Amino acid sequence: MLTHPFLYWIDYVVLGVYLLGMLAxxxxxxxxxxxxxEFLVAGRSMTTPxxxxxxxxxxxxxxxxxxxxxxxxxxxxxxxxxxxxxxxxVYFFAAFALSERLRDAKFTSLPEILERHYGRxxxxxxxxxxxxxxxxxxxxFGLGRMCQVVFxxxxxxxxxxxxxxxxxxxxxxxxxxxxxxxxxxxVLMCVTLAIAIPLLMQNFGGFEAAxxxxxxxxxxxxxxxxxxxxLAYTAxxxxxxxxxxxxxxxxxxxxxxxxxxxxxxxxxxxxxxxWLVVAGGMLAAAGVDIGVxxxxxxxxxxxxxxxxxxxxxxxxGLFLAGVLATAMSTIDxxxxxxxxxxxxxxxxxxxxxxxxxxxxxxxxxLGIILSxxxxxxxxxxxxxxxxxxxxxxxxxxSTVLVPIFICLFWKGKKTPAACIVSYVAxxxxxxxxxxxxxxYGESNExxxxxxxxxxxxxxxxxxxxxxxxxxxxxxxxxxxxxxNCIGENYVPPAPEEVR
Length: 499
Description:
Blueprint: H1 9-30, H2 36-41, H3 48-59, H4 62-75, H5 78-97, H6 99-104, H7 110-118, H8 120-133, H9 137-150, H10 155-203, H11 206-213, H12 227-235, H13 244-252, H14 256-289, H15 302-310, H16 315-350, H17 357-378, H18 385-409, H19 416-440, E1 442-444, E2 449-456, E3 459-464, H20 468-486
Antiparallel strand pairs: 1-2, 2-3
Helix pairs in contact: 1-10, 1-16, 3-10, 3-14, 3-16, 4-5, 4-14, 5-12, 5-14, 7-8, 8-16, 8-18, 8-19, 9-10, 9-16, 9-17, 10-14, 10-15, 10-16, 10-17, 11-14, 14-15, 16-17, 18-19, 18-20, 19-20
């Protein structure tokens, strides 16, 4: 099936033009990128307008468009007040606390920070953690769902085709191609969603009619979601502080001030975008209640199906282009980061010869292909976007957050052993936690997770897989303290030239 009851031929034309346009931009930029620094961090020359567009589009991918709307469809405004707002608070902290420290030190990647302060082994471990977090699994998962709903394709085939476009233009043009395409994608995703939500509300009879069809609990700040699950989702926002894509944008800025201003402006956009997505998910719930939308509508597909129902011919295609834009802006950015992790943070330190600029670019491109492939494989291990997001965020936060923040903000003793023990202890605890809860727990279809229920002294307790960070992050902290006691202080050498 290649058609959808809510779409027209003009919508498919719009989609085709969009995909061809992205490829054309990537091919054009390919001829303009001469070296590794241009390819990876755009020559450290990005100004505020470009940074705003690439930040806004990269960080608000399909995990927000589909994941947050999934949460609001099931639980209501808790998706906004209990999840999105802490993430904005973390970005605000990062804008002032991190931008100047990171930009002025002229790092090239997140793992390089660990390498400078704890030695080569720590940098290699950081490269592995950053590479895993940067696998574009979330965006490929969302693309697959979109193609399944819109075109009737198998989800894996849809992700392969549409995700392949983002892979191609990223391979061709590096960060400049990512930034320029992100600018176009930023406009598409914001404008189409801003048009769609008012039309959707109008189709459902206005705010009062829609509100009457939405479960009353959806308007409570925390809805009917378990409070510990709300806190678990909220805690994942801390991963922003060690997000490799965020660090790359700071390194690419022409100055620390440009990076800070771009983050602050992006926050205003994210606040509005969050609310539109949450409103869309809740309106989709109203559409199911009044019988306009299918009764068996999957939460991941709620926003997409509702908006396609509301938009007229042409605008539906534009919205789908915006959805593709949202996914592609995440795929291109994180695939590029992961590629650099392989070339600059793993291959370069291990090489027995001086690594040339062209060799770094070539290895980065191989890393982009590898990360895309691994992300495609990981995308279908989990049933829900939020479950996949929590797993990746927990793994990164539990391995590198403590070592990174200690070296950036603590002037005292810092040992390589502290970083390594913290990393290894955090990683083992994440894997062990997920395996134990999956083995002893029961599958929960509503949230796409496992819940382990047990009794102690007559009292019943539940441990969800999403609670992992509550256990694994403290273990990472303890690991750092132990390693710092048994290890010797590390005196970092002067920054080396890329070799």
